[in-house]
Amino acid sequence: MSASDRDWDEGGPERLYVITGGRAESTEQADLDLVTLIVSREEPKAGIQPELAAILRVCRSPVSVAEISAHLTLPTSVISVLLADLLADGRVEARAPASSSRPDIALIEAVIDGLQNL
User: Fold this and answer.
1) Which of 28, 55, 56, 88 is deepest in the core (most CB within 10 A)?
2) CA–CA separation, 31 and 2 (whole Å)
3) HSE toward the beta carbon, residue 71, CA cutoff 13 A
4) Which segments within 1-118 are labelled E, that is strand?
5) How buried is residue 2: exposed, middle or buried, by Cβ count under 10 Å (0-12/13-18/19+)?
C-alpha cells in the first residue's frame, strides 16, 4: 500500500466531498425522507459513478432511503444528493411508503361496547 493510499480515509469527509461533487444539497429539490421508497428504472451503465451504480443495483426492488444509506455505508445526506441526481435523470423513481391505515374508531368503540356487554 502506497503512502497516498494510506492518506485516503475511506470514511473521511474528503471522500464524501468527492462523491457529492462538493454539494451538501441537490440543485433539484426532491422531497425525500428516510422512509421514501426508491426503485431503479434502469441498470447501471458503464462509466457511471460507482456510488450511483451501487444505488441502482440496491434499488432493483423498492428500498427506503435509510436502507440505501445502510447498504452503502454512506450518510443519508450524501445518499439524498445522489438520489436527487438519479431522480432528475429519470434513473430511479421515488414512491411514498405504504401508509398504514388507521383503524376505524367507530368499529373499535363497537367492539369495546360488545365486550363490556358480555
Assistant:
1) 55
2) 42
3) 16
4) 37-40, 63-64, 92-95
5) exposed
- Backbone phi and psi for residue 38, each to the nearest 5 degrees, phi listed first: -120, 135
| C-alpha–C-alpha distance, residues 16 and 23, integer Å | 9
Q: What whole-number percentage of the chain has pLDDT above 70? A: 70
Answer whether 65's CB lies under 8 Å from 7's CB.
no
105 vs 67, residue with greater confidence: 67
Integer angstrom CA distances of residue 107 from 111, 112, 113, 115, 118: 6, 9, 10, 12, 17
DSSP 11: T
Cell numbers placing 89: 435523470
pLDDT at 5 over 50: no
| Residue 57 CB neighbours (<10 A) | 12
The larger pLDDT score, comparing residue 25 to residue 43, is at: 43
What residues form DSSP beta bridges with 38?
Answer: 63, 94
Distance CA 97, CA 29 (A): 19
**0.70 cut: is pTM over it?**
no
